[in-house]
Amino acid sequence: MPPTEAILVPVLNEEGAIGPFLTELAPHAVGRQVCLLDSGSHDRTVAEAQSAARECDVDLAVVNCPPGLALAIRFGVEQVAEQHLAVIDGDGQHEPEVLDRLFQALRDGSDLAVGSRFVAGSSVAEDWPRYRQAASAAFLTLVRTAVRCHDVRDPLSGCFALQRQAWQQAAPRFETGGYKFLLDFLASSPRLRVAERPLAFRARRVGRSKLSFAVCWELLVSIARGVLRATVPRRWISFGGVGAIGTATDTLFTGIAYGLFDLPFALARPAGILAGMTQNYLLNNLLTFSDRRHRGLAACMRGWGLYAAAQSVGSVVNWAVSVGTHALGTPWFIASMLGVAAGVVVNFLTATKLVWRKERT
Q1: Which pTM was predicted?
Q2: Are strands 112-116 and 123-124 parallel, antiparallel or unpaired?
Q3: Complete domains list, the chain, with CATH
Q4: pLDDT in tens, 326-344
Q5: Could you count the other beta carbons within 10 Å of the beta carbon of residue 208?
Q6: What number is the average pLDDT over the span 186-192?
């Protein structure tokens, strides 16, 4: 008996695009389960999809998923029982006929089949926005240089198919939270038999792109985690990156207050500390803990107060560890680094357990 096959279609506010896409998908969905992975669309995406599926006789199941593209895909993968799973965007940018080639590659023995923009026979829309092309090229260069991609030429593709067995092997190392599921899957998989098939990538005709600062940050975190061979949790990497930005802001504001406004250094330091701490809170709220984000002025003010208190605890730990280890004979620069490391650990733990607590369900 041949393996069962499912097509996962992640969507978020794709009204106007999902109907024509499902109509085009219909000939390639015969005998396959189609799952609409909806991450909380607040338009008519789901209703339009259901109507188009009825008209085209597509076996459509709607799966209500948590926010976030990679999280939605993982949720969908774990909700269905089929052995061969393909992912294709619901905005119409991927030609549906590539699915037949991807599923055939899996039947031929590949663990992963990627719809690639960079193999013979592929094409990219000429009217694809230049800023998107530039951003994609920059990220691709960075990814290929830094991350183990199993020689995949398009590791940022949003169209691919995988064997359930390959997913089960990668799942224990796969940490959800990124934007590009494929990149995190490649970084989490020790060995893969990969095939790439040509993809016609088309410009978006309806709706808005989901590219944002938060998406770019998540991609950078995925790259950093790939460099570290998926050994460091995503939140640690994001928290550390935000902290590095905060350190630069702290230094800048201290320099402005001390050098430009000629304040005494003792008074200039609080200005830098306050600026860096506030920026860190805002960025961590937006990026590191986006799934637990504080919303509204009152919640953010309360969260900022808790964050300031948590940072104070980390500062005390930093001072105690550095002073204590130096008193034991450790060189001052090593003692300072140990103090910083201890402070960061405490800051992260207090932020996770106190400031952005996971709500009980």
Answers
A1: 0.81
A2: unpaired
A3: 5-227 (3.90.550.10), 239-355 (no CATH)
A4: 889 888 778 878 887 888 8
A5: 9
A6: 87
